[in-house]
Automatic annotation (TrEMBL):
One Pfam family here: Glyco_transf_20
PANTHER family named among the record's database cross-references: BCDNA.GH08860, TREHALOSE-6-PHOSPHATE SYNTHASE
Any one GO BP annotation for this protein: trehalose biosynthetic process
Organism of origin: Streptomyces griseoaurantiacus
Similarity comment: Belongs to the glycosyltransferase 20 family.
GO molecular function: alpha,alpha-trehalose-phosphate synthase (UDP-forming) activity
Protein name in UniProt: Trehalose-6-phosphate synthase
CDD domains on file: GT20_TPS (cd03788)
Database matches in Gene3D superfamilies: Glycogen Phosphorylase B
Superkingdom of source: Bacteria
InterPro entries, A to Z: Glyco_trans_20 (IPR001830)
């Protein structure tokens, strides 16, 4: 539970928090803890040192937890009304801002900024204000506040007005759109997003490319950055955690099952994603199909292990994409599969231990997003794979800035080119593959989550 108001020295704000609740049949609430960079980052400081994570209730279980006063030290969950959250999260954040920054609009999926959008925008403002007010209440004099991502772009500006004494940072985990694409947003909204973020002392981005795009938008639309400083912090994989976790028993059990499903003497191409349009899963499957069509020598000798976990299923466009992914995988299996060989092994229920099992078995990791803030899978698979895998990597992923030299790089729209890259990756001599994987793992773990977090905190307090 939140401790006394006005006591927190370091505050984190994000839509999704480190814990989520579901109500059981008996009415009891069950907590599920999430992992990830921010959890390990913030635990490097801990609630004893006055760290507080402010997040939103995301579902009925969470709302019930807030009402019953159930919670954890160092976490304050906001009881945002379901409709306000849905407008802000589904409507504005994941339909509009996500689509702008990932440049996902294309005919016939084009933005229509109508009255419904205006209504949702008002909820987005309400939602952001709820965060700003909670943070203003909890923060000690001069505290550091670290606001996360596109759900909360207005918080820095709102909080600055309420509490001019605070040090405020905002970090974007997504790409940032180029000016010509960003200004697709109605002028007043584009300006509010930029001015909201520029209420921060520091803005953080995952790569120079996204930081430069933001700067260009600020210069073109609101006369520049003003006093706000920009920093680039390329979040890396958590090597210690992943190495240990991937050698636990449940992972070994799932490896045995997967080995059985894959069959003997076959190579594996592994991908693990949330099922989400920017991940480009359909073109990845089509590239694999092209590989089997144009290079018949790989038939029966390779399996594509594709884990595509459900994401944002309240939105039709994400649901339809999920269906399409499944259809394309089934079509490939129908076209090429034989009695003893299933070309695409797809799983859709989220299972972290099984993901790690696939990582360990990977000969090739396929990471081909059309656009991605970073993509940690690209950093994780070469690190975890038992034999050291090859990496086929989109040049549009943030990770390309750090991993481009040792990956086999693709244009994510080029299906034939991606098929050729898969062939090249499968054909790499074992020594070279292992050498490259070693360098990829080193580059991909250069900035572990705890240092990523503490660097930003130091810079903010600096
Ligand atoms: C991206 C965003 C995160 C978000 C995650 C999962 O990585 O940058 O802020 O938490 O996707 O998406 P979800 O909508 O499930 O929180």
């Amino acid at each position: 539970m939140a401790s006394r108001f006005g006591a927190a020295q370091v505050l984190l704000a994000s839509n999704r928090g480190p814990v989520s609740y579901t109500a059981g049949e008996d009415g009891a609430l069950h907590a599920k803890r999430g992992g990830g960079g921010m959890v390990s980052g913030l635990s490097a400081i801990g609630p004893d040192a006055g760290a507080l994570w402010v997040c939103s209730a995301l579902n009925e279980g969470d709302r019930e937890a807030v009402r019953r006063g159930v919670g954890e030290d160092g976490v304050r969950m906001l009881d945002v009304p379901a409709e306000v959250h849905s407008d802000a999260y589904n409507g504005i954040a994941n339909s509009v801002l996500w689509f702008v920054h990932h440049m996902l609009y294309q005919t016939p999926l084009e933005p229509v900024f109508d009255q419904e959008f205006r209504r949702q925008w008002a909820s987005y403002e309400t939602y952001n204000r709820a965060f700003a007010e909670a943070l203003a209440e909890e923060a000690a004099e001069g505290a550091a506040v670290m606001v996360q991502d596109y759900h909360l772009t207005l918080v820095p500006g709102m909080l600055r007005e309420l509490r001019p004494d605070l040090r405020i940072a905002h970090f974007s985990h997504t790409p940032w759109a180029p000016v010509d694409y960003f200004r697709m947003l109605p002028d007043d909204i584009a300006e509010k997003v930029l001015r909201g973020m520029l209420g921060a002392d520091r803005l953080g981005f995952l790569t120079h490319r996204w930081a430069d795009a933001f700067t260009a938008c600020a210069e073109a639309l609101v006369g520049g950055l003003g006093e706000t400083r920009i920093g680039v912090h390329g979040l890396g994989a958590d090597a210690d955690f992943l190495r240990a976790r991937s050698h636990e028993d449940d992972v070994a059990e799932r490896m045995a099952v997967l080995r059985e499903e894959i069959g003997p003497d076959r190579k594996t191409i592994v991908r693990v994603d949330r099922t989400e349009l920017s991940k480009n899963i359909v073109r990845g499957l089509l590239a694999y199909e092209e590989l089997l069509a144009s290079r018949p020598e790989w038939r029966e000798r390779v399996v594509h292990v594709a884990f595509a976990y459900p994401s944002r299923q309240d939105l039709a466009v994400y649901r339809e994409y999920t269906d399409e992914v499944r259809r394309v995988a089934e079509a490939i299996n129908a076209r090429f599969g034989t009695d003893g060989w299933t070309p695409v092994l797809m799983h859709v229920e989220d299972d972290f231990a099984r993901s790690l099992a696939a990582y360990r078995l990977a000969d090739v990791a396929l990471v081909n997003p059309v656009r991605d803030g970073m993509n940690l899978v690209a950093k994780e698979v070469p690190l975890v794979s038992d034999e050291g895998c090859a990496l086929v990597l989109s040049r549009e992923a943030g990770a390309y800035e750090e991993l481009g030299e040792d990956a086999i790089v693709v244009n994510p729209y080029d299906v034939v080119g991606t098929a050729e890259a898969l062939h090249e990756a499968l054909s790499l001599p074992p020594d070279e593959r292992a050498e490259r994987a070693k360098r990829l793992a080193a580059a991909g773990t250069a900035l572990p989550p705890s240092r990523w977090f503490l660097d930003q905190l130091d810079a903010l307090r600096g």
